Amino acid sequence: MTIKDIPFNCSKHFKDFPCSHRQWKHKGHCRYVHGYSRSFTFCFASNTLDENGFVVDFSSLRTLEEKLREHFDHTFLVNFDDPLLETWKKLHSEEVLDLRVMNNVGMESTAELVWGWANDLLFSRENARSCCWKAIAHENEINSASYTSFPEWFKY
Fold first, then answer.
1. 7, 28, 137, 138: which one has the fewest Cβ atoms less than 10 Å from its Cβ?
2. Domain containing residue 33
3. How many CB atoms within 10 Å of residue 65?
4. In the prediction, which pLDDT does 65 show?
5. Are 66 and 73 within 8 A, CB to CB?
6. Which strands make up the sheet holding 8-21, listed edge to edge?
């Protein structure tokens, strides 16, 4: 199945989540703490429209936006295996930074993470009528990464 097989599509963009991170294994400048104002685009699909004629009612995505804000707004993201993790935890406890530990802070892994969040929300309330088939994580206006997949439960 490809997206061309699904008749109805829409997308929603959430922007301006300023956070910082570091890729400690990187040999270049990405190993240093740096930040971006991340944004996210979610692409949704369905074979049928809801009672309002929507693939996804955008006003119903507030919980997804709140989760994005909780995780990415004025936070510091580190990988679970960062050798300075205990230092970051100490700084978090001292309220110097608002720490979030992730499997991988890179934009590709971030796109996969938020794709999962969107699909968890949709599945819990729509029982597989619609899905998020693509999530794009933008680190700024010129760089982004995406994760594209149909969840196994999607009825196509």
1. 28
2. 3-148
3. 14
4. 98
5. no
6. 99-102, 75-79, 8-21, 34-46, 130-138, 144-148
Q: Which CATH number does the domain housing residue 38 bear?
A: 3.30.479.10
* pLDDT tens for each residue of 36-85: 999 999 999 999 999 999 999 999 999 999 999 999 999 999 999 999 99
129 DSSP assignment: S
For residue 33, what are its two tokens?
A: 């703490």
- Residues 114, 93: Cα–Cα separation, whole Å: 26
Alpha carbons 135 and 73: distance in angstroms, whole number: 18
Cα atoms in the 13 Å half-sphere on the side-chain side of 106:
12
Joined tokens for residue 80: 């679970």
Residue 16 lies in a domain: yes
What is the C-alpha to C-alpha distance for residues 62 and 110, in angstroms, rounded to an integer?
Answer: 19
Percent of the chain clearing pLDDT 70 (strictly above) = 99
pLDDT at 1: 65
Residue 156 lies in a domain: no
The residues with which 138 forms a beta bridge, in sequence order, are: 39, 144
